[in-house]
Amino acid sequence: MLIAIVLCGCSPRPPTPPTDEEVISYFWRHERELTQLVSLGEKHPALTRAEPKLAKYPDFNGQPSNEDLRAQETAYKILEDIDADFIEWSRKPDGKIFQAKVPFYRWGLSLGGFSKGLAYLPNFREKPPRSEQGRNYRQIGDTAWFIEESDTR
């Protein structure tokens, strides 16, 4: 009986995810910084991900130049200023960004978890992306930014 109580008491319950209104409020408060992050990615195709907590293990596409390294440091500073864990830039074969993601909330694993964040999707400004594979998108105002919600529980 004691083991059952301990096991039940230790089972992790996910914290309440933020509402869309909370994510939208965060976006409007930090729109300038988020736009700077996208711009850094556009100017520096070697950047693929910036995660200040893993600064010892930077992630680049190819060999970064000194300018790329400075851009990565700038991205770290911006992310810390807006209290974001990381940004991930995804590119087309020509190097242009088709997506940039900034997580807002994560719980669980990629298989069996839930996440909510911001996704910069410039190609979908006129036509929002379809919701598929557990992912839902909701556009923020008349911007190229969307709330991306993924539920694989």
The SS-based structural class is alpha+beta
**Average pLDDT, all residues:** 83
Q: Strand share of the residues?
A: 25-35%
Low-confidence stretches: 4-9
- What characterizes the major β-sheet? 7 strands, antiparallel
CA(first)-CA(last) distance: 29 Å
Rg, rounded, reads 18 Å
Number of helices: 4
Spatial order of strands in the largest sheet:
2-1-3-4-5-7-6
- SSE run: HHHEEHEEEEE
Number of strands: 7
Any overview of this molecule?
By secondary structure, the chain is of the alpha+beta class. It is 31% helix and 27% strand. It has a 7-stranded antiparallel β-sheet, covered by helices on one side. A hairpin with a 6-residue loop joins β4 and β5. The radius of gyration is 18 Å and the shape is globular. About 4% of the residues have low confidence.
Helix and strand topology:
Layout: H1 2-10, H2 20-29, H3 31-43, E1 47-50, E2 59-60, H4 66-81, E3 87-91, E4 97-107, E5 114-120, E6 135-139, E7 145-151
Antiparallel strand pairs: 1-2, 1-3, 3-4, 4-5, 5-7, 6-7
Question: What would a concise description of this structure say?
Answer:
It contains 4 helices and 7 strands.
Which descriptors would you attach to this protein?
alpha+beta; seven-stranded antiparallel beta sheet; 153 residues; 31% helix
